[in-house]
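Running low. Any example?
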Amino acid sequence: MLEGAADRVPDVARIAVLRANALGDFIFVLPALEALRAAYPQAEIVLLGAPWHEQLWRDRPGPVDRVLVVPPAPGIRTATEGEPESSMVDFLAAARAERFDLALQLHGGGANSNPLVAALGARLTAGLRAEDAPPLDRWLRYVYYQHEVIRYLEAVALVGAAATTITPALAVTETDRAEARTVLGEPERPRVALHPGATDTRRRWPADRFGEVARTLHADGYEILVTGTPAERDVVDQVVATAGVPVRPQVGTLGLSGLAGCYAGCELVVSNDTGPLHLAAAVGTPTVGIFWVGNLITTASVTRGRHRPITSWTVHCPVCGVDCTPGIYPHRPGDGDCPHRDSFVTDVPVAEVLEAARELLFR
């Protein structure tokens, strides 16, 4: 058990877990969900998430039994395009009717999420609490510089769920693989996928560096896919233009299921620190990830057998020189005076990325 683990709660039939944020964020909570499943094997685990969580867990084996979609709300989640309006009042009424025994806040610091979890009417609440957040029945202080996987394992230990793994894993289904085959066809060469995007542009390695990686690995005999969301089309196009060899851009061609199937069929994924990198690792594919040092602490794979995080040690804004070591996100201390979004990872050398890639590919 992790330090401070409590006893299991008796007579638990239904558990609510709030985790309604982005793809990478959700991957980090998978070991905590596995710990809950092991501790409460007969209980129904209900994820309070976003519409994409509901799609992801449809007919997928794993620790989540069912998804309740939480309405968009400040500090919880933003609305997705085309999503119908929904009422938080109606959602809470339906959630209270579920009569949850446990409600766990694994969403963040808790300023907005702890009141939501408390309003579910569960017999016992537990989770994380930052300084500006109200308490739960059992809580653990939210401290930023901690690995995300360990953070959530500590949180579920509050209800007696001991860790069974520290490695996030997501089962790949035949539906995932079929979608990937439909879009990509059968490979003529072993495949490597590059993902040059990231929602936060400060985590983006320059596109021409990805192009150089594509060129080198293509010469080594690999088929190169370049994945990206529709919002990342420009950076994918830059990689294609600078590669100088045939590569296959995949922008918006694969849903999340198909992307899981795609990465599961690759020999390697090279990516910035973003959701697709963590998805690739979770489906069992070796990865080379490009990390800012602060995010290395909080999100990089904790194992090195199949994963190589390459680190940028830049701690000052490359434009204004502000020290951003407490965090490079606007709501965290030390970042409020810096409005710039220039890359913090340009000092990562191509040679180091290629060395790591070839080490994993040629072992």
Remarks:
- The chain is about 35% helix and 15% strand.
